[in-house]
Design a protein that fits this description.
- This protein is 45% helix and 22% strand.
- It contains 12 helices and 13 strands.
- A hairpin with a 7-residue loop joins strand 3 and strand 4.
- Helix 1 crosses helix 2, helix 3 packs across helix 6 and helix 7 packs across helix 8.
- It is elongated.
- Belongs to the FKBP-type PPIase family. Tig subfamily.
Length: 448
Amino acid sequence: MATAVETLDKLERRITITVPLADVQAEVEKRLKVQARKAKAPGFRPGKVPMKMVAAQYGYQIENDVLNDKVGQAFNAATNENNLRVAGFPKIEAKSDDVAEGTVAFNATFEVYPEVKIGDLSAADVEKTVAEVSEAEIDKTIDILRKQRVHYHVKGEQSAHGDGGGDLTAQNGDRVTIDFVGTIDGVEFQGGKAEDYAFVLGEGRMLPEFEAGTLGLKVGESRTFPLSFPADYHGADVAGKTAEFKVTLKQIEWAHLPEVDAEFAKSLGIPDGDLGKMRDDIKVNLQREVSSRVKARTKESVMDALIKISELDVPKALIDQDVERLMEMTRQDMQQRGMKVSDTPFPRELFTEQAERRVRLGLILAEVVKANELQAKPEQVKAQVEEFAQSYEDPQQVLKYYFSDRSRLAEVEALVLEENVVNYVLGKAKVAEKTVAFDELMGNNVQG
């Protein structure tokens, strides 16, 4: 039995559940008899253990299970009867005052899903991102692909690709091998010394002063120079201090980039080495990546607009659940990176703002979908999976991967649903196109 629903806050509710002890005891005895049929104890045949021994061994757990079941059934009945959509899980606490004789009572405190009011979409401002893939971007991508296939030759020594020119000094783009030793106030410090250390000048791997101190040296030459470590340098012992380094250059290798020819095209998966096909292939890949990033930016603008025009209270229980989900995702990511998660604290407040936005958006999207019948259709899901499959060598394997697992397909359905919402909002809102430069969109990280 449950009392009337009390409203404690905007979304918080409470009901009192009363359970007759006689009902509990009857169910406990029933379950003990079932348990007795399979109970085992030293000196007794299975199923022949005295009921007192069965009760002593299993009674406490069975009583707890019965109480949980009775309270759960009463709670579900009460919320269904009052048409309440429970957000998260109820907090169940034993009640000690005003409890009728022969009963036990519990207070169930919980939150309900909010009413979501979507404002006037025609008044919402949305920014639609636009970007193009030109021949210049294809050229730039080819340069990056060449650099990914770079190989080095010792400067001054003849090779199949030449000797690197007449300048035998270390220049940007060269891979140098050095010995170095650093001191602070005349004392060597940890991590300040190395032999046969190799790096490429100009890539920014070393501090600018260190690279400048190496530039222009010839093999066998040494140079001593001061170096000021930044205040935020990762090595706390030297951060903000000035050291003196001595660098000795042992080897210079010049970079040879492959020619853009048939062999280069073949290395990129073009069987006949046709350069035109190679450029077309690169363009298709770039356009696919650009399309993905453009959609992501536009979707973010749509979501921001929906949040701005919507009114709702967000259940704390759902935020707490999402905080836990985000923390677990972070733990798993750190573990995959080889980090010791047990040594790393996870302050909940780091995840609260993100969780609150995710939950808020989820509730808004659910309302927009329901109100406008924007559910993902089977043909849309199939088309999305087929689009994923296009970038793989064996599209059929990708199709099988998704359609053989309901949870994987659910992920695709969620993406399609979001796209349906985005397209719906774009059709209603005030949309302004914003052209974004290719490099800005790609974050200066062009992928071929």
